[in-house]
Amino acid sequence: MMHAADLPETVPVFPLPGALLLPRGRLPLHIFEPRYLAMIEDCLKTKHRLIGMIQTREVPGTGEKRLNAIGCAGRVTGFSETEDGRYMITLSGISRFRVKEEVQGFAPYRRCNVDWSGFGRDLGPQEEDAGFQRAEFLSLLNRFFLSLNLSTDWSSLKEAETELLINSLSMLCPFTPEDKQALLEAPSLTTRRETLVTLIEFAMRGGSGEEVMQ
User: Fold this and answer.
1) Of the four listed, 35, 90, 124, 137, which is most buried by Cβ atoms within 10 Å?
2) pLDDT for residue 31
3) Which of 57 and 20 is assigned the larger pLDDT?
């Protein structure tokens, strides 16, 4: 477990649209671009081994893509190298952060000065969701997965801790980068679960007000 005093002022950032990392979540990544291979190598030399996962947003009318204000840092907790030089890593989510400014320099990858304040809860134990109705939620999830022709291990979902269940589904479900950002910025587990339910219900209506019949 990391403490607030261990968090650095500057982190390398990996802007990967649709890839969501949440505190206490785990995100496997396949690294093959030279600039990100360099990022991993530099990251492994640090004590904290943190990488910031962040979404980008397009500036209307320009085609320019800027970093969103909030991302989530993960610690490299798994690493392997393939015979052709690619890296397979696992990031374990530590804490969200707010971007203060992007650092200009000679590194081939992007780095940001970040502010960790406001996300102290991320460094604590698992969150609880007192209003979570598991049976009702899994029923909705079953209909959603059927609509997408997806399968899953339902016994594991029934037994999973509430935070693990909500956060894993938030990370894995096929939502847009904007939707993923909304899930990331949810201030509590309850809010994230409510946002997740809203996104699932909206997707099942085909993005309209009309329910899609299955």
Assistant:
1) 137
2) 95
3) 20
Residue 95's identity, in one-letter code, is S
Q: Between 155 and 20, whose confidence is greater?
A: 20
Q: Hey, how many other C-beta atoms are within 10 angstroms of the C-beta on 8?
A: 13
Task: Note whether 117 and 145 are same-domain residues.
Answer: no
* Model pLDDT, residue 161: 95
2: left (phi over 0), alpha (psi -120 to 50) or beta: beta
- Pair (169, 97) in one structural domain: no
What pLDDT shows up at residue 207?
Answer: 59
Which of 97, 123, 149 is the last residue in one of the domains?
123
Q: Which residues pair with 57 in a beta bridge?
A: 66
pLDDT at 208: 44
Please report, for residues 54, 99, 153, the alpha-carbon distance to residue 96 in angstroms, rounded to integers and kept in the order given: 10, 10, 29
Q: Strand pairing partners for 12?
A: 111
176 lies in which domain range? Answer: 134-204
